[in-house]
Amino acid sequence: MTYEPITEEPREDETRVQFVMRQVAEHIGRQGLKVGDQLPSETSFAEMLSVSRPVVREAFGALGALNMIEIANGRRPRVSAIDGSVLSVSMGHAIRTDQISIQEVWETRRCLETETIALAAVRRSDEEAARITEIAAAMASAEPGSSELMTLDIALHKAIATASRNTLMAQIIGSFAPMLESSVPAAWDTITTKERHAVMLVRHAALADRIRARDADGARQAMDDHFDRSVGARLTAR
Amino acid sequence: MTYEPITEEPREDETRVQFVMRQVAEHIGRQGLKVGDQLPSETSFAEMLSVSRPVVREAFGALGALNMIEIANGRRPRVSAIDGSVLSVSMGHAIRTDQISIQEVWETRRCLETETIALAAVRRSDEEAARITEIAAAMASAEPGSSELMTLDIALHKAIATASRNTLMAQIIGSFAPMLESSVPAAWDTITTKERHAVMLVRHAALADRIRARDADGARQAMDDHFDRSVGARLTAR
User: Fold this and answer.
1) A120 within 8 A of A211, measured Cβ to Cβ
2) A107 to chain B: which residues are within 8 Å by CB?
């Protein structure tokens, strides 16, 4: 397959690699390519844009790092499905280098999760409501302090985000997951008494209950309480 | 400068390039490097990790694309300051390939901006409050439909996000800017009557006013109204 040459020149503020990256992104838009669709080869882009193959290879590599295209050795690249990994890696870096704080991440998570649960209460399918209820019930049966409990906790928040039908918010929330995997066990660790463990379970059951009831305001309030008392308390205590 | 060799092996789920990317990120964390600090050279990492230089070069390129390091030809890379560009590029791609909708972006923006304005009302410095008030006042003097008005509109939202002191939320909001630059003029374009223009100005003045008054709830409500009526109305009308 041959393509029309693109006569546009790199802008003054971009390198040749950035120029190729932008042209590949624009090609995807222009051709209406969707996830899984094949892109022209390195050689085709090099010809179309009158640049060398190493420049295209570098641009492909960068687009791969940004999770926009998927590159398998020797095959033509394909359009990638987004996931939270790019934001996750970028956020991890910002935290490690003190550009953003853990407190800021929690504020952001709270903001987004109180909204996604309200949307989930309105938009969830019956299957989703049942699944969320099931996870909350499984949490009640799980051994206090077990890794199973942590896994279920994370799965509950994820199922709620998915049921919101807002992929962008779900992706952003999902990108916090690697951080959660290290901080959720610590949060549950601070729950030393039976009474406090029971309260945590009631809070999680309340999230599921308000979604099942299609009660957006109640769901939002339940998530806000959850952050306030269980999560917030721990952050303050640090 | 020489570094200790790292004996860790790539994980089964990562390529050699991904392994080097992770090791560079961990090196930054371990050494407590901050924005602007220099990283070891390509050769040093190749020796430390027992990989070839082209592998390190590719990993550096990918980390550059993710805006984690800055690479200048022939010089050692430095730790980069994050900005919203990575999320912005990734979001643009997701929109172009129908993975997320404009409606989802607006929902996310509304969620974050109603929160950042509440935080701004509490945390803003007097200078920030004065600056925000000044922008709102300049909007009132700007020619209806002028590009100056659009620029001020975007600047107002940006100043509010900055005053929230939550860099992560400000970055995410900032990453919507390229999309705003194309959609804000269209939003103002739909304001055809003098009366409606005046109402828009009053709404923006209310945002500034509630921040100046340190009224978090009022500020949140004013932003919610702003999204509801001006922005929401337009989206519905499409």
Assistant:
1) yes
2) 115, 119, 166, 168-169
